[in-house]
Amino acid sequence: MDQTVFQRHRARLIEKMADRSVALFYAGEAPHKTADQYYPYEANRNFYYLTGLSKPNMNLVLLKDQGRTFELLFIEETNDYINKWLGRRMSKEEAAAIAGIDVKNVRYLTEFREFIATSLSNNRRALVQKPGHLYLDLFRPKADFEAVSLRLSRFVVDLYPEIVLHDANEFLDNMRLRKDPEEVVEIEAAVGHSRYAIEAVMKHAKPGTNERELAGYFEFMLRQHGSEGNSFNPIVAGGKNATVLHYEDNDKDVPEGALVLMDTGALAGPYASDITRTFPVTGRFTPRQKQLYQLVLDVNKQAIEFVKPGILMADLNKYARDLLAAGMLKLGLINAVEEVGTRYYHNVSHFLGLDVHDVGTYLEPLKAGVVLTIEPGCYVEEEGIGIRIEDNVLVTETGHRNLSAGILKEIKDIEAFMAK
């Protein structure tokens, strides 16, 4: 994306920050795995949102004081050893061009602590006089984990014990919820990668194929199409396995006559898609499979049509749940609407963006620019049938746009495609 997108994001955040404040963001690094092995690096999503940079070991500093604002970026300084063993690091000029930050304000990490100590003080030459507020990404994966940013920024608190800590996510969650047009383009690209790979897997699948082979083939086709890979651990479930919502074993042979549920996603840069399609491994649905599949498909399409600005996620979930309950009653899957949870045990939607389950509040009405999923399901364990159909939908000023409308989901279209 163009650097103006990230400049715009930083400007929005700075506008919300209090006077005499500093905000620190960290790109992160790959966590240690075992011996000399590391997990794949994933850029901190807030850092990327503000800079467009997806390399590890970088710091962003935003300062605001009496109407003046400053943006500084700290990056790794390369050397001959790093170049030979790990590859050339990004230069100041390259980082500045991507982030849209003046190259004079791009420095090396070795200068970071000294900069903080001298730029935030009572000294008249300091960039922020008597800093009163510190904004950090205080996300913690678990209640007993300390936020990484707080651990790395503790020296700032030690230098200025009177400073007030703020969670920058209080601003960034709402900012990230409504996508810029450029971000929607990236999500659409991720959806396009998913379409290519899903269609390839449909062609490749046959009875007896192992789920891991289908999962591996999906990722291979993603990368062939230009994607960075899976946006989350894929769920490729044949038959009864599809009745487990977050089935990730992907290690069983798909039985003759079974349905295959693929809940998968692709990346375009760090932006995610999240698509689920269910198809018969033989290429043709049985009458019973058609009956249940059509129920889920009808609810999928009706729920998409329900999406518009002003509704609550709770409204959307209730609407889909009521439709599923009515359909299940008609088919004899349940005896009372209260039993719908035995056949459908998740919500119909979540936000989508830089994260598969993206940030944002579920308590406020939907607004234009929000991207969400629509994913009704029906799970009948005793019949070995699990069905989910998931699309990615953009809320527009006048309603919605289904970003994944081009991915096969009608029974006749799936059967015709797999018969070719």
Give the helices and strands, then pairings.
Elements (H helix, E strand, L loop, with lengths): L2 H14 L4 E6 L5 E3 L2 E2 L6 H7 L7 E7 L2 E8 L4 H6 L6 H8 L6 E3 L3 H8 E2 L6 E2 L3 E4 L11 H5 L1 H6 L4 E4 L1 H9 L3 H24 L6 H14 L10 E4 L20 E6 L2 E2 L2 E2 L2 E6 L6 H20 L6 H19 L39 E4 L2 E4 L4 E4 L2 E5 L4 E3 L8 H9 L1
Parallel strand pairs: 1-9, 5-6, 7-8, 9-10
Antiparallel strand pairs: 1-4, 2-3, 4-5, 11-12, 12-15, 13-14, 16-19, 17-18, 19-20
Helix pairs in contact: 1-2, 9-10, 11-12
Explain what you see.
- There is one protein chain.
- The chain has 13 helices and 20 strands.
- With 420 residues, it is α+β, with helices and mostly antiparallel strands.
- It folds into two domains: 3-175, Creatine Amidinohydrolase, Chain A, domain 1, CATH 3.40.350.10; 178-419, Creatine Amidinohydrolase (Alpha-Beta Complex).
- A six-stranded mixed beta sheet has the order 6-5-4-1-9-10. A three-stranded antiparallel beta sheet has the order 11-12-15, with helices on one face.
- The radius of gyration is 24 Å and the shape is elongated.
- The model has no long low-confidence stretch (mean pLDDT 95).
